[in-house]
Amino acid sequence: MKTILITGCSTGFGLETARFFLEHDWRVVATMRNPLDSVLAPHDQLTVLALDVTDPDSIAAAVEAAGPIDVLVNNAGIGWLNAHEGTSDETIRRLFATNTFGTMAMCRAILPDMRKRGEGTIVNVTSSVTLKPLALLSAYSASKAAAAAFTGSLAQEVGSFGIRVIEVLPGLSTATEFSTNAREKIEQEGGFPSPYAAMMEQTFAHFAATPADWGTQPIDVAEAIWRAATDPACPARLPAGSDAVEWFAEA
After folding, report:
1. Distance in angstroms (rounded) separating the CA atoms of residues 135 and 78
2. pLDDT at residue 52 is higher than 70
3. Is residue 153 classed exposed, middle or buried when 0-12, 13-18 and 19+ CB atoms within 10 A define those classes?
4. Long-range contact set of residues 173-176: C-beta below 8 Å, sequence gap at least 24
5. If exposure means fewest CB atoms within 10 Å of the residue's CB, which of 16, 70, 73, 187 is most exposed?
6. pLDDT at site 174
7. CATH numbers and ranges of domains, the chain
8. C-alpha 203: how far from chain center
């Protein structure tokens, strides 16, 4: 039985991916900052672990507790929507700490065992915003673009050891915390600059008018990760969701 470790499983893409792999008879190590937040149903092949990808000690403890991992999915991430003028250095550092440095740290922790065994797959979940510039997402896009560049380079480094490194690029989603909590996050951190008010309100109006089934759904990402994990012929960069596929073709 193969084992997959997934970061960021409390909601959204990570939660759906954990459920998907359990349904396909994999051993799943689902990680999140607080295991008490888990809504995953108990399962003989499920292990839920605490993991903060910004904390080296937390990473080391989770990797040791998980045991040999066949597939690592770096899904943990945080979103941010605001003008750059309204984005503090602290917020930018927090975005990179999770979205970029957390991904890099998890890869570094898991690579020695995969290299010794001569096999393994790493799937890094980035974003289709790296394909198409969008206003108000500059800091978030930068953190994901850095993770995307890291993924491509790492694939070249470790391929000769039998390790595959795949980038999955989800599109925009109305079904995740990113869009539903965006305004609350902005208000908690001081609001948005008044010169950008019209742009912000237009963006939120677009969110409100967008059907819940539009764009990328969590199942799209789970299926893309499944392909990355199981298909040796999977491309190195894989869009997930109809909008991501369209943007990927245009890039």
Report:
1. 18
2. yes
3. exposed
4. 173/12, 173/215, 173/216, 173/217, 173/218, 173/241, 174/207, 174/210, 174/211, 174/212, 174/214, 174/215, 175/12, 175/212, 175/217, 175/218, 176/11, 176/12, 176/13, 176/218
5. 187
6. 62
7. 3-239 (3.40.50.720)
8. 23
| Token pair listed for 246 | 């369209």
Sheet containing strand 27-32, strands side by side:
46-50, 27-32, 3-6, 71-74, 120-125, 163-170, 237-240
Residue 71 in tokens:
């597939």
**196 in active site:** no
Q: What is the mean pLDDT of residues 218-233?
A: 97
pTM greater than the 0.90 cutoff: yes
CA 57 to CA 229: how far, in whole Å? 27
**Distance separating alpha carbons of residues 142 and 206, to the nearest angstrom:** 23
Q: Which is the catalytic residue, given 20, 140, 150, 248?
A: 140
